[in-house]
Amino acid sequence: MQLKLRIFQARILKRDRRTLATHSVRLADRVTLAPAMTNEYYEQGARRAAKVGDLFGKIAPRYDLINDLQSLGLHRWWKRRLIDVAGPKPGARALDLCCGTGDVALALARRGAEAVGLDFSGPMLSIAESRGTRAAGIDGKPAPRFLLGDAQAIPFPDNSFDVVTVSYGLRNLANWTEGLREMFRVARPGGRLLVLDFGKPDNAVWRGFYLAYLRAVVPLFGRFFLGDAQAYAYILESLRQYPAQRGVAEQMRQLGCCEVRIIQLLWGVMSINYAHKP
Ligand SMILES: C[S@@+](CC[C@H](N)C(=O)[O-])C[C@H]1O[C@@H](n2cnc3c(N)ncnc32)[C@H](O)[C@@H]1O
């Protein structure tokens, strides 16, 4: 497993170098929220994926606990909303990218979908796999299948899935537009694309409170549970470089998606981008 993971990470690093050589970072992708910071886990360029891999390898054992604490449990409600909007029918084929410890893939499977979760972090995936094993057969619903893989080079043919989701994942990719293009490619015509992530609220006062929370409080969870404040300060730094709900909606339109919608959660603190592949 270790050797397989190393070979896989080396392949991603090589591919990212190529991608970054050919795609300059667009100005619109870098909406600024605050003055530039430095973060040990955020690096523009060819080493982005390796840094993100290190980060999630480190936080995997505490990931679910910290998620509950830092969101006061609200992430569960936001993910439920994502699944409701996705509305998978029993037997639908569903893919959850950057699946982490498996929350969304497990929920898709509980709705009767034939679900696959894909992630490039071995430690995150092994937690998802054990949760999947525990859930297998409950209510006669099939457990999701969990796969090691890169969201920027999805190992499935075109037009494979009725539903493609990503929750708190697109922002972490070295090239998020490539990730979205891949989601579009593997969705079947009529299939749905859904992206849940941190947002950028329109209201300046509300945005100020929210950014202060991300800057001052969230890193404390990293310090307390992992002895590393940078691990959670990463959220704000990655959001700073990510165009969030409005930029993702624009990119969905450029890809040719239809019925593009933004669902604001908690006045834009979180958001769901939703679209159909024509
Ligand atoms: C913040 S976690 C989100 C986990 C889960 N989706 C959730 O909502 O709780 C981000 C996940 O994205 C994964 N990830 C980041 N870049 C990736 C890539 N290029 N390919 C696949 N997974 C990736 C990380 O390993 C991590 O598990």
Q: SSE string, helix = H, strand = E?
A: HHHHEHEHEEHEHHHEE
Helical residue percent band: 40-55%
What order do the strands of the largest sheet run in, or round the barrel if closed? 3-2-1-4-5-7-6
Count of DSSP strands: 7
Class per helix and strand makeup:
alpha/beta
Mean pLDDT: 89
As for the CATH topology, it is Rossmann fold
Major sheet details: 7 strands, mixed
Fraction in beta strands: 15-25%
Instruction: Look at the structure and name the CATH superfamily.
Output: Vaccinia Virus protein VP39
The total domain count is 1
Structure explained in plain terms:
With 278 residues, the chain is of the alpha/beta class. It has a single domain, classed as Rossmann fold (3-Layer(aba) Sandwich). Helix content is 48%, strand content 18%. Strands 3-2-1-4-5-7-6 form a 7-stranded mixed sheet, with helices on both faces. It is globular, with a radius of gyration of 18 Å. About 6% of the residues have low confidence.
